[in-house]
Amino acid sequence: MGKRLNEEKRLQVVKEAIAGVKVGVLARMYDVHPETVRSWIREHRDSISPEEIPAADEHVQELQRLQEVEQRYQKAVKVLGEKELEIEILRELLKKQNPAYLKNLK
């Protein structure tokens, strides 16, 4: 992080954010901190006319698709982590010579 962008790129980032792209995605894409993107939006929001805001072109649609894929990926990673934890717990139970659940069955 810490990359400096010229004014033209900053305006492009602000336009994409106003068009609906999430700040986090823009921050990763342009390698800047999300709070930096938010401050650019606050600074330049009023200077951008509605005609300058990009329509839902292919670039914006691709970024929105990327957001959806990232959300599904994060959900899948979470589920995978939970399943790995469950497997580890079951393996630990199998290693015990006198597991508590067998005592309850007698």
UniProtKB/TrEMBL annotation:
Pfam families in the record: HTH_Tnp_1
Gene Ontology molecular function, alphabetical: DNA binding; transposase activity
UniProt GO BP: DNA transposition
Coiled coil: 56-86
SUPFAM superfamilies assigned: Homeodomain-like
Record keyword Nucleus present: no
UniProt keyword list: Coiled coil
Protein name: Transposase
Organism: Paenibacillus antibioticophila
